[in-house]
Write a structure and sequence with these properties.
Oligomer: single chain
Order of helices and strands: EEEHEEHEHHHEHEHEEHEHEEHEH
Distance between the termini: 32 Å
CATH topology of the largest domain: Rossmann fold
Radius of gyration: 23 Å
CATH architecture of the largest domain: 3-Layer(aba) Sandwich
Largest sheet: 6 strands, mixed
Amino acid sequence: MLEVSELTKIYREGRGIRNLSFQMNSGTTFGFLGPNGAGKTTTIRLLMGFMKPDQGSARIWGLDCWKNRTELKSIVSYLPGELHFIEQQTGQEFLDLIEGMHGERRDIKRNQIELLRSLELDPKQRIRKMSKGMKQKLGIVAAFMLDSQVLILDEPTSGLDPLMQKTFVELILEEKKKGKTIFMSSHQFSEIERTCEQAAIIREGELLNIQDVASLKRNERQTFEVEVEGEEDAEFLRQSGLTIYALGKSRFTIILADKQELLWKTLAQIHVKRFKQGTLELEEAFMQYYR
């Protein structure tokens, strides 16, 4: 459904993206992970036909994203990473403007009402008085109410509080049930993990890897950092049968796939000075590419 082949765009200062190639199937959600400045937004702007690539190509449903950029807008909804509005308008006036550009369909109005309720947004307020989070909600409503088969979202939860981030994840899951195809950039691992079948890592404009999220989940493990009182406790930990790595004389990392009962029994028999749960290996598998 979406195919990127050796896509390249280099800016004057040398930053940009180089030779990106990946494919995405219809009806799936694809996560695009990377730190700020990695090239996520540049890739999305090329997918939307806002810029001409230096080389390579991108296609959505067979349409070339540059040559057929006008036709592309009829099948794709877009949420930009940086939102710009007509600040004098109310939220409702802005949504009415977007609705009018798409033929004032009855289903758009119905979707709009449901989205406003879910995101707890009052559209009567003038946009210039809205907080960053409220403006982000308005952008989400404008993108999702069109009920397009393809959604391209650039940092969609930027500015949202944790409760609204959870609501947004639930919204994505609902769209997936409808068979929508969703391309979503983010630097928040948790929302990618919960919503995507595949995720790609981009760093300094280069695609480092594409991972199947489900296969990683099947093999995910947890890590714990433990500091014990003395050598006797350390030796007991070494002989426990747990998978451990020494960080010092009395500090250890414990890697756990199962055997949780063994972990708690072991810790109950020694003097623990410090105990900290680390990141899931699933997240760590991606974070190593950042480092």
